[in-house]
Recover the amino acids of this structure.
């Protein structure tokens, strides 16, 4: 069951390619074209990521991250989360690059297959940069009053983050 | 908001660096943090290209359109009252499909089109309509079927099965999505705009 991911990605890739062939798409040319897009998008995150990676490295080096984690640990305990992922949970709705910098730090420190590493990965995979999304979408059509969007979206993020820890416990038998 | 968070992290780091007597480490972090960012991007680059390439095939072959058609009844359910064959619901379906497939590049422009069409169809001026709120909440909840970035990061750090988190990601995403939609419906029905 836990190896389901090993099957899904290759099979999905195969389905996409075969469907393309059936529809007479010149799959390799189109693939190369798309891969080029991937190149530009990935490079586009560099400036923000450099800025945030530096700040997160400094925060960790100064010992401040440990102090923040320690201070937040009672809250984490109530929510059933490992306290090490709380900074990630707080930054996730605000900044995509910032949370990328934090999760990189968590995975190198605790390992990807540890409980902390898994919860951090699941948080990363099941949440979005909420504030950015709200600003871009409503900003594009000039809407000023977003009504209950932010409370609803944040409620969803909050529950999603708590659910991440529960889901990891559930699927990996960690108590 | 990022201006304050970013500046704040710098200030806090330097303050604690001084208090804890760890300024050497802080200075090193300042020097090397940028390189770590580049290394991270390089390690993601190959897989990002691969996935974007595959998704381009899905787009050109019409697989994305097909999925968007399948999505329609579900969208009808959560965003009621849209014109049956209107441009709005079509754009919404395309955006949701792009999100499911993890096509971030395609999802945003489609989402902006959807917002424009929703505004034309529902015309609520500078105030968001119920369907707009639902649509944006749908976009802030990550509904990506394959969490590629998380998978790539896990592979980079030597995970035995980088994608073994998949069922957990799906469960957490579904719960988050249901809560987001339920809250937006509940509050939306209580506070009718005038």
């Amino acid at each position: 069951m836990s190896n389901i991911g090993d099957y899904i990605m290759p099979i999905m890739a195969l389905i996409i390619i075969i469907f393309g062939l059936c529809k007479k798409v010149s799959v390799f040319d189109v693939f190369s074209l798309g891969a080029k897009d991937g190149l530009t998008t990935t490079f586009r995150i560099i400036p923000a990521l450099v800025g945030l990676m530096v700040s997160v490295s400094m925060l960790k080096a100064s010992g401040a991250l440990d102090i923040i984690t320690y201070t937040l640990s009672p809250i984490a305990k109530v929510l059933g989360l490992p306290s090490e992922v709380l900074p990630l949970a707080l930054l996730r709705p605000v900044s995509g690059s910032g949370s990328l910098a934090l999760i990189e730090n968590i995975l190198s420190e605790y390992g990807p297959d540890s409980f902390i590493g898994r919860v951090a990965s699941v948080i990363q995979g099941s949440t979005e940069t909420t504030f950015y999304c709200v600003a871009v979408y409503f900003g594009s059509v000039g809407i000023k009053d977003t009504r209950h969007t932010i409370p609803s979206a944040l409620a969803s993020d909050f529950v999603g983050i708590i659910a991440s820890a529960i889901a990891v416990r559930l699927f990996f038998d960690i108590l | 908001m990022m201006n304050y968070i970013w500046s704040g992290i710098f200030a806090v780091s330097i303050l604690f660096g001084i208090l804890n007597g760890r300024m050497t480490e802080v200075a090193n972090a300042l020097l090397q943090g940028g390189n770590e960012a580049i290394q991270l991007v390089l390690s993601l680059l190959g897989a990002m290209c691969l996935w974007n390439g595959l998704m381009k095939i899905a787009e050109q072959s019409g697989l994305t359109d097909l999925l968007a058609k399948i999505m329609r009844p579900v969208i009808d359910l959560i965003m009621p009252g849209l014109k049956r064959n209107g441009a709005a619901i079509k754009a919404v379906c395309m955006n949701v499909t792009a999100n499911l497939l993890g096509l971030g590049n395609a999802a945003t422009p489609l989402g902006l089109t959807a917002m424009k069409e929703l505004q034309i169809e529902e015309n609520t001026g500078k105030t968001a309509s119920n369907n707009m709120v639902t649509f944006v909440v749908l976009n802030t909840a990550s509904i990506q079927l394959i969490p590629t970035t998380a998978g790539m990061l896990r592979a980079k750090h030597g995970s035995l099965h980088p994608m073994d988190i998949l069922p957990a990601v799906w469960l957490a995403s579904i719960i988050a999505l249901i809560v987001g939609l339920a809250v937006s419906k509940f509050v939306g029905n209580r506070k009718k705009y005038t």
